[in-house]
Amino acid sequence: MPAAGGEADGVRQPAGVGGDVPEERLHRRSLSRDFKKLLTEANFEPREVNFGDLCRQFYPEKKPSELTCQEQVTLIRYALRKRESFLIDPHSTFVKYFDLVITVALVFTGVVTPYEVIFVKT
């Protein structure tokens, strides 16, 4: 009779056998958690890549199935490259400070302008 988590017929059983969570599932969970953390921290966004259109654009003489692995990798990298954009990330530090400055300016205007209209004689 084998000992719990021990050996059976000279073969060592992996830890987690017998009701515990297997190590590979724990590893998968931690990878999944790390992957989710990476996605949220890096601000990845999914993109739709039309491989057929890319192939026709860069290799008009070939079908997508005729491309070498290196050519496929080149097309995918081109499709997933970081695009130049003039959009400002609404969660960036710059926007947070900009919002603070605008809020202070609006409060100042909301307080000072009525005061000047009522009390300042020019």
How would you describe what is shown here?
The chain has helices spanning 23-42, 51-58, 69-80, 93-119; strands spanning 7-8, 11-12. With 122 residues, the chain is mainly alpha-helical. Strands 1-2 form a two-stranded antiparallel sheet. Strand 1 and strand 2 (11-12) form a beta hairpin. The longest helix is centred in the C-terminal third of the chain and has 27 residues, at 93-119. Mean pLDDT is 77; it is low at 13-19.
How are the strands of the largest sheet arranged? 1-2
Q: Which structural category fits the helices and strands? A: mainly alpha
What's the average pLDDT?
Answer: 77
Could you describe the largest sheet, including whether it forms a barrel?
A: 2 strands, antiparallel
| Rg, alpha carbons | 30 Å
Instruction: Give the ordered list of helices and strands.
Output: EEHHHH
* Amount of beta strand: under 5%
Distance between the termini: 102 Å
| Contiguous helical run count | 4
The low-confidence parts are 13-19
Number of distinct beta strands: 2
Percent helix range:
40-55%
